[in-house]
Amino acid sequence: MHGSNFNDMENGIRHVAVIMDGNGRWATSRGLERIEGHYRGVEAVRHAINAALKAGIEYLTIYAFSKENWGRRKDEVNGLMELFCKTISLEVPSLIEKGVRVRFLCDRVGLSEDVVGSLDYCESKTGHCERMTLLVALNYGARDEIVSAVKAIAAKAAGGEVSPSDIDEKMLESCLYTAAIPDPDLIIRTSGEQRLSNFLLWQAAYSEFYFTPVLWPDFTEESFREALCEFGRRKRRFGKTE
Ligand code: IPE
Ligand code: IPE
Ligand code: MG
Q1: Which of 70, 113, 141, 183 is 20 to 30 A from 238, comparing alpha carbons?
Q2: Beta carbons of 16 and 60 less than 8 angstroms apart
């Protein structure tokens, strides 16, 4: 079931963003290495994509690796990079079949050539797909994204291309990774944590938040639908009165 009727039911939702958290706890509670939890998390990403497609969501954003995640143990970081390299390329045929275009919200500086190669490959191979856009935040930090945007505008101002008085929200937005993408209507975070962890700070200004104790590897299509149902009950006012 997807399309406009479902969308109406869901409060006109276009963009859902997910902070996929709890892979490590899922693994350690089973006596497994943390990396096993990340591998299991890939299955949950497939569930989220399928559920989003069925709901007619236009943009699904997933938080895969933060700038701060470099501070984890080397074996976990290396394992994650290997996982990204492997799965991103492997998923391409199935993403194309589903009509999912992939884009990375990503600082490519600091990533290995292998990882950058797989991101570029995935973006170019799925570029023509139109049913849904999957945005993957990888080596992403929202503060860093905003600082980069400010730097780009400052360079233009220094070069006389823009005048400081012309700088507005639209201009800043056009310099973010998410330029031209609508703000997330709903941000889901799994694993019981209730924070943003440097995710989409600018874009989340009027997002609805949904926190669930479910650990990411246990997140199913049904879990996604529950989040959408809860969203459908929210009253969004954007500062106005009803
Ligand atoms: C989220 O799961 C995935 C990444 C941050 C890469 P975690 O690895 O943060 O899992 P927990 O929070 O330690 O359980
Ligand atoms: C946020 O999860 C980053 C991703 C999901 C990729 P973390 O597990 O890194 O966040 P904190 O450390 O609990 O805030
Ligand atoms: Mg975590």
Answers
A1: 141
A2: yes
